[in-house]
Design goal:
23% strand, 209 residues, Transferase(Phosphotransferase), domain 1, five-stranded antiparallel β-sheet, 2 domains, Phosphorylase Kinase, domain 1, 7 helices, alpha+beta, two-stranded antiparallel sheet
């Protein structure tokens, strides 16, 4: 496994491009800091179950003395959010945008039918590959909920602006709250700049109210 250029970073991880066995292009999520290794294994185990054309495919996990690596397929155009911001001409390409939206719906339908909720659906957590193929990723918050409802623990964090009312008031997640979080429409339809955010004129406290 060889590591290449950095593709992005977050509080406890960074993502780099790489090659597996010198022939397969991959994305490598490198976990650092205080993240629980068991949680990472849980995320990888979930990804292994998700076999769908519009869900990011897991190749493997590397665990050793250093940081944990989660190895997935490479989607070379980055996040859907950044892709749309970098390609403003797509705002007027209704057929392309609609196709992207349908792909994401197909992925979320598969998750719901499999008994899972995503809990963090957003344009920043979808990746774009060749020919505008979109794949939903970022499954660290996903949960298996056969009864279609999950109550988060006290102190759990979530994005207020993209969360359904029942999530904000009672920390209750379901396939319906995933539908609410289909904030991708804010990015896909009428996107003009990266600053365009739901309820942007309000602070988080007023958004909550």
């Amino acid at each position: 496994l060889s590591l290449g250029k950095e593709l992005g970073s977050g509080e406890f991880k960074k993502v780099v491009a790489g090659q597996w066995r010198n022939e397969v292009d991959v994305a490598i999520k490198i976990m650092e800091g205080a993240l629980n290794e068991d949680d990472l294994i849980k995320e990888a185990t979930l990804m292994e179950k998700f076999q769908h054309d519009n869900l990011v495919k897991l190749y493997g996990v590397c665990i050793g003395q250093g940081p944990v690596y989660i190895i997935t397929e490479l989607n070379g155009n980055g996040s859907l959010l950044q892709y749309l911001c970098n390609n403003q001409h797509l705002v007027n390409k209704t057929d392309i945008l609609l196709d992207m939206a349908i792909q994401i719906c197909a992925a979320m339908k598969f998750l719901e039918q499999s008994g899972f909720i995503h809990r963090n659906l957003a344009a920043r957590n979808c990746l774009v590959g060749d020919r505008n193929i979109v794949k939903v990723g970022s499954f660290s918050s996903a949960r298996f909920v056969p009864d279609d409802e999950y109550k988060a623990s006290v102190g759990a964090k979530y994005a207020v602006r993209w969360s359904a009312p029942e999530v904000i008031t009672h920390a209750r997640f379901s396939s319906k709250s995933d539908i609410w979080s289909y904030d991708l429409e804010w990015k896909i339809v009428g996107l003009r700049s990266q600053k365009e955010t739901p309820f942007v004129v309000f602070g988080c406290d007023k958004t909550y109210l």
